[in-house]
Amino acid sequence: LLFQILGAVILGFGIWILADKTSFIAVLQMSSPSLKTAAYVLIGVGALTMLMGFLGCLGAVNEIRCLLGLYFTCLMVILITQVAAGLVIYFQKETLKEELSRIVGSLIENYDPWNNDDRNLQDAWDYVQTQISCCGWTGAKDWENNKILINQSMTLYPCSCSNSSKDIQAESRFCNLDVPVNGTATYADWPVHEQGCMDGVEKWLKDNLGVILGVCTGVAVIELLGMILSISLCKNIHSEDYTKVPKS
């Protein structure tokens, strides 16, 4: 039962990644095929874990060695895969960081309030900037690459970056700046947050690192216990000694 619950949690997490439309995960999921693939992998692992939990229970109750052996093997494969994925993420973190910068940089450069095709993606990024109180990926300067703002001589700025609650609640995605005398401006003239979202995301990860590691460790321990119990049960199941059966 415990492994079926664990499988349901993993399955639900994968579905949440695909379904979420209002967080940083949504920005990555809609921009990066690799994260979408990872979500499908999580859904598959969750479904497999639930199935293995059922087969493990069936094998233990009916003392079926082959089911317990299959249960042990699948758990071992899942555990090894999880450890390998963790190691890949750890050793490739700089590459992942560059990929994130590329994704967000492209989003900001092509951000267009009148483009309904990317509305969900842009809504998700506005939500991130509002919730984390940040602007751009490395800072507000990133928005100087936006095509629309360049055409407007930087006299507009993203409302979701604003440090004013009035601008954040505005229906428009771009807010008007009080135009200077020369009619041009820079990001330094905008009333926006100075912190880039990269720093905000990293801070969130650091603040929640203990919880993330705790959950991952708990899942690994549960899987390890399941492997130990399944192999112990398998060893304790004695094969029938058919030499003692009376001959007819």
Automatic annotation (TrEMBL):
Source organism of the structure: Nipponia nippon (Crested ibis)
InterPro entries named in the record: Tetraspanin/Peripherin, Tetraspanin_animals, Tetraspanin_CS, Tetraspanin_EC2_sf
Subcellular compartments: Membrane
Assigned keywords, A-Z: Membrane, Transmembrane, Transmembrane helix
Family affiliation: Belongs to the tetraspanin (TM4SF) family.
Cross-referenced Gene3D superfamilies: Tetraspanin (1.10.1450.10)
Upper classification of the organism: Eukaryota, Metazoa, Chordata, Craniata, Vertebrata
Name assigned to this protein: Tetraspanin
Record PROSITE patterns: TM4_1 (PS00421)
Membrane-related topology note: Multi-pass membrane protein
Residues annotated as transmembrane: 6-28, 40-61, 67-91, 211-233
Gene Ontology cellular-component annotations: plasma membrane
